[in-house]
Design a protein that fits this description.
Order of helices and strands of chain A: EEEEEEEEEEE
Largest sheet of chain B: 6 strands, mixed
Largest interface: A-B, 28 and 24 residues
Number of helices of chain B: 0
Radius of gyration of chain A: 13 Å
Number of helices of chain A: 0
Number of strands of chain A: 11
Order of helices and strands of chain B: EEEEEEEEEEE
Structural class of chain B: mainly beta
Helix content of chain A: under 10%
Radius of gyration of chain B: 13 Å
Distance between the termini of chain B: 41 Å
Oligomer: heterodimer
Strand content of chain B: over 45%
Number of strands of chain B: 11
Chain lengths: 111, 113
C-alpha cells in the first residue's frame, strides 16, 4: 500500500516554463488536496477535489490548475512559472472528516 | 473562512521537561483538530487528533485538549526526548472536509540536552 505518491521530488524550472506535478493515491479516497509550504511557514491550500470531475480553488490558486479525471490521480499544473512559486508542494488525500495523508513532497525552485 | 493561530513560534525546553503548544481557531463549525509533526525535509505526519465531541485525548506522552467554548486547543508533550525536536502544526477542519485543513504557522520545538 503506497499511500499518496507524488513526482517529481525535486525540480528546477526557468521563469516562464510550465510543468505538471503528478499525484496518485491508492487508498480509494474521494478527497484530494494540493498544499504549498514556503520556508518556515505553514501549509496553504492551493486546490482541492471532492471526487472525480470536481475541483475547486483553495486559498492560493493563482498560477495553478488542476484536473481530476480519476479517483486516484490529481495532477497540479504550473503555467508560466514565477519565482514566487518556489516552494515545497504536498499532495494529500482523505475520506473527508478523517485523517489527511500527505505525500512526500515536491521541492520546486524557479530561477 | 477558518483562521488558525498558533503559539509560540519557537519553544525550547530541557530534555525530560514538558512542552505545551497552543492554538486558537475562528470558525465554531470546525469539528476536527489534528496535530502534525514535521521533521526537516519530511512530510507532515499525524501524531494525534481530537474531534469536537471530546475534551481530551492521550496517547502515551502526547495529549491534546480542546475547549470549544473558548475555541482553543493545545498539544502537551511530557518527558520530552531529543527525537521530539521538530516543527509541530495544529490544524482545523470545518464541515465535511471538502475545504481541507487550515493550518497554524507551526511551532519549532527544540529539546535541549
Amino acid at each position: 500500500n503506497a499511500g499518496v505518491t507524488q513526482t517529481p521530488k525535486f525540480r528546477i524550472l526557468k521563469i516562464g516554463q510550465s510543468m505538471t506535478l503528478q499525484c496518485t493515491q491508492d487508498m480509494n479516497h474521494n478527497y484530494m488536496y494540493w498544499y504549498r509550504q514556503d520556508p518556515g511557514m505553514g501549509l496553504k491550500l492551493i486546490y482541492y477535489s471532492v471526487g472525480a470531475g470536481i475541483t475547486d480553488k483553495g486559498e492560493v490558486p493563482n498560477g495553478y490548475n488542476v484536473s481530476r479525471s480519476t479517483t486516484e490521480d490529481f495532477p497540479l499544473r504550473l503555467e508560466l512559472a514565477a519565482p514566487s512559486q518556489t516552494s515545497v508542494y504536498f499532495c494529500a488525500s482523505s475520506r473527508g472528516e478523517n485523517t489527511i495523508y500527505f505525500g512526500e513532497g515536491s521541492w520546486l525552485t524557479v530561477v | 473562512g477558518e483562521n488558525v493561530e498558533q503559539h509560540p513560534s519557537t519553544l525550547s525546553v530541557q530534555e525530560g521537561d514538558s512542552a505545551v503548544i497552543k492554538c486558537t481557531y475562528s470558525d465554531s463549525a470546525s469539528n476536527y483538530f489534528p496535530w502534525y509533526k514535521q521533521e526537516l525535509g519530511k512530510r507532515p505526519q499525524l501524531i494525534i487528533d481530537i474531534r469536537s465531541n471530546v475534551g481530551e485525548k492521550k496517547d502515551q506522552r502526547i495529549a491534546v485538549t480542546l475547549n470549544k467554548t473558548a475555541k482553543h486547543f493545545s498539544l502537551h508533550i511530557t518527558e520530552t526526548q531529543p527525537e521530539d525536536s521538530a516543527v509541530y502544526f495544529c490544524a482545523a477542519l470545518t464541515g465535511g472536509g471538502a475545504d481541507g485543513l487550515t493550518f497554524g504557522k507551526g511551532t519549532h520545538l527544540i529539546i535541549q540536552p
